Amino acid sequence: MNPKERRLLDELERALAEGGLRLAYQPKVATADGSLVRVEALVRWAHPALGAVPPARFVPLAEDHGLIDDLTQWALRTALRQWREWHAQGLDTDVAVNISAVSLEQLDFPDLVERLCRALDVPTERLVLELTEGATQPLIKLMDTLTRFRIKGVGLAIDDFGTGYSGLIQLRKLPFTEIKIDRQFVTGLATSRDDQVIVRSVIDLAHGLGLLVTAEGVETVEQLAALRALGCDLVQGYLLAHPLEAHELVAWASRHKRRWKLLIRPPEDPYLRQRLEANG
Ligand code: C2E
Ligand code: CA
Ligand code: CA
């Protein structure tokens, strides 16, 4: 490891220990009626000198140098505690947490998650784990762990679908409850026939397997319309909301109810449309 990386890792370790990390939460809404179904927790690190360090920069570092389990547990605890608080405020939503494939190699991980849910008084059914395939670890190898989570009632989403190993055929064997179509396919939806065909097949097959489908990275009203027409269940992206601070969610939810009507019947005027899209 070069000295710069070493230093960043040390600083990350300190931030984790001293409360320097926080979670932002991005809503996922139902295409049917715009209702808030769940929020995805995304880690944020405001570095004192470097400013916001993106997770794509420090999560892999934590994975490679033994810090990921601490990070994962911190994220789970923080998100579950936050769920309790929202619940007390009458906000009814599930919560999704990103889990690195490295953490799944820990055999007692499902028990640990169950204990955390119990300690923080969150039903396991309200938690979804979002898993991305590691570069070297196809998810099929983690079958036992995944099954144990399902037995406990925890939901499992396969993240970035279409970019890893798991084809739809493999998916049949894995105990997932949800798939998230990667942003790259969503971006092309309005313009590329190929992307339309891919997204349509993924949605139809996933539904055939009884899975919920979320499209991520939805940024335009055209993409939203296409996804609704294709029967995609949930949408997430800057069009609906950027990742929010925990305390912003309640206000967002009431504003969103009114805005949804416009999103599904957007104004013809390109200027008004642009303004609508920019206000997510
Ligand atoms: P991801 O799980 O695929 O998360 C989606 C990423 O896309 C997030 O970036 C989110 O801010 C961004 N995003 C959401 N909507 C849009 C959109 O409409 N357009 C565009 N261009 N981007 C959008 P972020 O927060 O930088 O996270 C990057 C990745 O870091 C995540 O990808 C996830 O793999 C990982 N990550 C984030 N938080 C955690 C965590 O707590 N634990 C672990 N293990 N990984 C995390
Ligand atoms: Ca995710
Ligand atoms: Ca993703």
UniProtKB/TrEMBL annotation:
Coiled coil regions in record: none
Record SMART domains: EAL
Highest taxon of source: Bacteria
Family matches, as Pfam families: EAL
EAL domain boundaries: 5-257
CDD domains linked to this entry: EAL
PROSITE patterns: EAL (PS50883)
InterPro entries given in the database record: Cyclic-di-GMP_PDE-like (IPR050706), EAL_dom (IPR001633), EAL_sf (IPR035919)
Name of the featured protein: EAL domain-containing protein
Cited Gene3D superfamilies: EAL domain
